Amino acid sequence: MLLNLMEYHWAEQIDDALLLLSRSDIKTVPLAGGTYLLGQRDDSIQAVVDLRDLELSYITEDARGVHIGAMTTLQNMVESPLLQEFAGGILVQAALASSFSRLIRNSATIGGTLGAGTASQADVLTALAVLSAEVVVRSASKTQVNLSGGTLERPGLALSGVTFKGKHERHILLSSLAMDRRPSELMIEVLVPRPGAASGAVFRRVGRTPTDVALLNVAALVQITDGVYQRVRLAFGGVNMDVQRIFAIERQLEGQPVPAADIFSKQIVPVVQSCMDDFRPSSDFRASADYRRVSGTSMAYHALEEATNNALRGDMASSEGSK
Ligand SMILES: Cc1cc2nc3c(=O)[nH]c(=O)nc-3n(C[C@H](O)[C@H](O)[C@H](O)COP(=O)(O)OP(=O)(O)OC[C@H]3O[C@@H](n4cnc5c(N)ncnc54)[C@H](O)[C@@H]3O)c2cc1C
To answer: Which residues line ligand 1 (CB under 6 A)?
Structure first.
């Protein structure tokens, strides 16, 4: 419950929403699907700006990649034909797994999921991390100044109380969103670059039941050129966990030849095992850090193997994901 909520704004233009969010005297926050925000006990929030009419619900593609508007719901993502073929469909699988309740997926948006961050427990964050997604954020400012009347050479009228409105847009890597985003910035969209040719992507998860939150999830993306790993991305996530890229595995494999199928496990298992010290998962009542690290080793190996096979087939196909 937001007990000190005094104002509800239904913005029709992005600029109006930005100006409301830029106010320093009244703490104002964006309201997307409301599935997270409205359940919060936050007495500091005094106003909300409803984003539903801002036309930020879209999934399109251009030369830079796929653009997912901040108000796109998880269900829109699941049903999107574009995302079903994009990156082996891992965004669709992860959006579906983020909440197995269709009721929640119909309301919960990608912007709200990113806004809630780790608290959302959403699998989609792990998939976005390996796809090097960026978040486009925008902010606004409004300043009142008194203009002087020009110079002797170029005389002009003095004006008082002139209002300047300014806008600022920037791209933030998803991995640094929590640190870099300012409270007055509105997330406009998520930009996901299309993985290059001969790429393979995989998303897998493990939970107590198929529809429970993920105790651990893993996403992998590999790109292979002339039999060599050109790009490797591997990340873990799960309930109560920040998404963690395992940079050591990525660095060790990039530039290395892809092992033949009969020696794949012999060569890749030791690499994965030697790099798992970098993975420092948390413990909670659902799973210990040790459980997550041990399962993670096997999940990372299988994700890399499957992503490699998909890349070699060149079809960006991916697994259904183990649940
Ligand atoms: C019964 C229930 C079950 C749930 N189960 C799950 C689950 O299984 N898995 C899961 O992932 N989540 C779950 N959630 C949590 C919630 O659904 C997610 O966190 C959801 O993705 C939030 O999206 P939303 O659009 O509802 O965001 P909101 O609740 O509207 O907002 C979330 C936060 O993001 C900010 N925000 C929203 N949009 C923007 C924007 N464009 N720019 C900047 N900031 C923004 C808001 O100010 C707020 O701080 C559950 C919630 C409920 C009520």
So the answer is: 29-37, 39, 51, 70, 98-99, 104, 107-109, 111-113, 115-116, 120-122, 186-187, 213
pLDDT in tens, 178-188: 899 998 999 99
Kindly provide the b/e burial profile for residues 265-289, where b requires at least 16 CB atoms within 10 angstroms of the residue's own CB: eeebbebbeebbeebebeeeebbee
Q: Tens of pLDDT along 12-25? A: 999 999 999 999 89
**What is the CA angle 105-304-267, rounded to 5?**
165
Nearest CA to ligand 1 atom 8: 99
CA-nearest residue for atom 12, ligand 1, is 120
Determine the Cα–Cα distance for residues 130 and 197; give it in Å rounded to an integer: 16
- Site to substitute for ligand 1 among 104, 240, 323, most atoms within 8 A of C-beta: 104
Report how far ligand 1's centroid is from the alpha carbon of 126 (Å).
16
The answer to whether residues 94 and 223 touch, using CB atoms and an 8 Å cutoff, is no
287 DSSP 8-state letter? -
C-alpha 113 – ligand 1 centre gap (Å) = 5
Considering the entire predicted model, what is its pTM?
Answer: 0.90
Please name which of 46, 50, 48 lies closest in space to residue 11, comparing C-alpha atoms. Answer: 50
Question: Could you give the maximum distance between any two Cα atoms of the chain, in Å?
Answer: 85
Atom of ligand 1 minimally distant from the CA of 115? 34
